[in-house]
Amino acid sequence: MTENLTTRTSPVSTTDAPSRRRRFLDGVDERLGLKGLQYGVPEHANKLAYSLGGLSLFTFVLMVVTGVVLTQYYDSSPSRAHQSVHEIVTSVTLGKFVRGLHYWGAMAMVVLVGLHLLRVFVSGSFKRPREGNWVIGVVLAATTAALFFTGTVVKWDQESIEALDHNTEIGKLLGRFGFWFSPKFSGISQLGRLFVAHIAILPAFFTVVVIAHLLLVKYHGMAPSPFRKSSQPEPTEPFTRHLARLGAFAMVVLGVLALLAVLAPPRYGPTPVAGIEVTKPPWPMLWIYPVENLVGVSGILWATVAIIGLLFIVPLLDRGPERDPRRRLPVIIGGAVVVVAVIALILFAAFQPVASHVGGG
Amino acid sequence: MLFAVVSMCVVVVPERAAFAHGGEEGTARELVLTAIAIMQTQPGERGAIADKIHDATDSKQTAGVDPVLVRAADKAFEAGNVRQAQLLLQQSVQACPGPPILNISSAPRFPGASVLCPAARSLKDLKGSAVGGAEGVLLGIAAFALIGLGATLAWRIR
Q1: Structural domain total, chain B
Q2: Which of A272, A356, B103, B132 has the fewest CB atoms found within 10 Å of its own CB?
Q3: Which residues on B lie below 8 Å from A274 (Cβ)?
Q4: pLDDT confidence tier of residue A267, bands split at 50, 70 and 90
């Protein structure tokens, strides 16, 4: 009897389980279209250099998650903001760690976006028909810079109020177009409005634009490798495999950021005092500092416009079909000069004495 | 030491503050500390506060005080911006306004960012730090594990 049961039931159970699982997965796929993610992408897409965009997006998601936590405890009124940051660090469970993760994640996002931009530039991935997506990418890079700047202000220490002073001065330079940067724009403090920009306006804009960016990457497909010589089409792999490798890279990035958050937590700066200038901007914005000392506050505006403008017109400056950087030396050297100049300005500013120049026009 | 002086002023000065109008007695530093103490304890005594700040700006004994910041505080106070005036006064004597001010040397800063207030050695000096001791160690171990796992997976998924 027992034998009969065994012989009857075991074949049924072994064939039933996979089929139920299969039916479940097929049901999920039918409704969510997950198999659609298994489209082919060229093998070279799995290299780290071609994963920088995905890692940038990962850091953005990390910023959103940690930012949501910090927002629960941050008070954006100017009289309370500094103290609320203090409370996040001292009283909130894991507050110091989450703040550290947010700080280091922001640094990582700036670096990854910059490296992604450089990779696309060097590999000629912006060339026809991807010029539009390059422009969208530059918009995303500019939005990243805006997110970084507003984040610098909302922590509301001495560095922040000086950044805000410069923001106000630049608003004046923009004339009637700079109304939003004026402290007189509305009854809400500038800090409050920049906070809203930091947690809502800019992330929402970034999300919409990054969706367009990804849709265009899907539409055009991954740009071919500039170094491939064979006339045969490059072998492909499922996109899901690319996603899995990206996930592995993201784990490494998250681990490094967590380690930095534990070992080198961001500083809690002095209470802000308006009207004095005693700090320098954080390193991603430091290249502008010597320019400002030389030209005045307007230098910040013009240098930023020049860099972003230059990035926008890259597809016009390098229009040929050649993607191999060794055969595009003039453009590559031009790009290298800009990068070296920015790094040199950062290093120069690092050792320059602090100079008061707000309102220096 | 500085905090002890400020604390003494906070305790001792209020009783005399309302009566201490006029004159330029004491050093600028003492006058500034007195003004701060009155602001903290008797913010309604605007006349006394204004007198102390005026006297500090006029004082010839300016050791330990930044006269530029005191004059800025004077202007801010006259303009009705009491909070900014107080912060400027505290900055002028290198005191830390409001809550404890820390400058964490472990943060990746280029040299040159001025230290406005006395620096604490690290965030661990803050009482009740939410991540310290075992939590920090556990998070560090978890971070290392994540790096190792991610690197292994990245190596295998090629």
Answers
A1: 2
A2: A356
A3: 84
A4: confident
Is B52 inside any structural domain? yes
Say which of B108, B152, B154 has its CB closest to residue A245: B154
Distance CA A51, CA A244 (A): 11
Complete domains list, chain A, with CATH: 41-225+235-277 (1.20.810.10)
Beta-carbon contacts of residue A329 (< 8 Å; ≥ 6 apart):
none
pLDDT classification of B17: cutoffs 50, 70, 90: very low
Distance CA A152, CA A167 (A): 12
Q: Which residue does chain A place closest to B101, by CA atoms?
A: A270
| A81 vs A118, more confident | A118
Inter-chain contacts counted by CB atoms under 8 A, chains A and B: 166
Nearest CA in chain B to A247: B150
- The angle formed by the CA atoms of residues B134, B135 and B136, to the nearest 5 degrees, is 90
Check CB contact under 8 Å for A95 and B130.
Answer: yes
Question: Where do we find the tokens 């080198």?
Answer: A264
How many C-alpha atoms does B75 have within 13 Å on its Cβ side?
Answer: 7
* Residue B18, pLDDT score: 37
* Model pTM score: 0.74
B81/B136 same-domain check: no
Chain A contacts in chain B segment 74-113 (CB below 8 A)? 76, 83-84, 87-88, 91, 96-104, 106-113
Q: Which residues on neighbouring strands pair with residue A42, listed in sequence order?
A: A236
Residue that is written with structure tokens 């000065």 in the block = B13
**Which residues 109-148 of chain B have a CB within 8 Å of chain A?**
109-117, 123, 126-131, 135-136, 139-140, 142-148
Closest to A355 measured CA to CA, from A244, A260, A279: A279
Rounded CA gap, A168 and A174, in Å? 10
CB B102 to CB A268 under 8 A?
yes
Tokens 């539409």 label which residue? Answer: A219
Beta bridge partners of A322: none
Q: Alpha carbon of B102 to those of A86, A89, A95, B115: distances in Å?
A: 10, 12, 17, 9
Residue B99, in any domain of the structure: no
| B132 within a domain of the structure (yes/no) | yes
Q: Is the pLDDT of residue B19 over 70?
A: no
- Asked if residue B106 is part of any domain, the answer here is no
